[in-house]
Amino acid sequence: MKTYARWLFAASILPLAACAGAPKAPPAPPPPPPFAEADATFVEKASVANTFEIATARLADTRSHNAKVKAFAAQMVSDHSANQDKLGAIATQHGVTLPTDLSTDEEKTVDDLKAETGRKFDRDFLAVQVQGHTDALSLFQAEAQNTTDADLKSYATDTATTVQSHLDMARSLSTPTHARHGRYHHHHH
Fold it and tell me: What is the reported pLDDT for 181?
């Protein structure tokens, strides 16, 4: 930034005679294009979904005693945080701030999970993740297919892949008896 300021300063001491005639005001930058209504709705839902996944996944660190569940939760916090940053960058280009308010139901789910530990927590936590990621998957897949916004299209396509892998992990952790058969499932990255 310093070199930029120095450059501005140097430019300001050039002779002003070059600007003969009335100086024109520089054109104002165009306001960011608003999202199409469907895209705006998607961005809101995706933001809240990320917020909810991060909030529930953070609980696993202290509530779960299962190393696999904790590792899965940590992966989710990392993926959904990166995902939220990407979404935030796209939203900013359209003059939108991401909403992060959870619905009453989601708040209640977080509170319920906070009250649980051990196996009960693991079971309910994984059930919440399977449900949440199933909903999120259809949200992102629909956006990837329907949006005309190039940034959102690539964002939704990438995210659908991540969400699918989380869903697969949540499902395989929910049914430990079938874990042995899970080896041949391909994880897309």
Answer: 47
DSSP 17: G
Distance CA 116, CA 121 (A): 5
**Within-domain flag for 5:** no
Range in 13-17, 24-28, 84-88, 121-125 with the lowest mean pLDDT = 13-17
Instruction: Classify residue 70 by burial, with Cβ atoms within 10 Å: 0-12, 13-18, 19+.
Output: middle
Q: What is the CATH number of the domain that holds 108?
A: 1.20.1260.10
26 against 63, higher pLDDT: 63
Quote the pLDDT of residue 31. 77
Q: What is the mean pLDDT of residues 12-23?
A: 55
What does each C-alpha distance from 35 to 30, 95, 160 come to in angstroms?
Answer: 15, 9, 20
Rg (CA), the chain: 23
Question: Domain total for the chain?
Answer: 1
In the three-class reduction of DSSP (H, G, I as helix; E, B as strand; rest coil), residue 122 is classed as helix
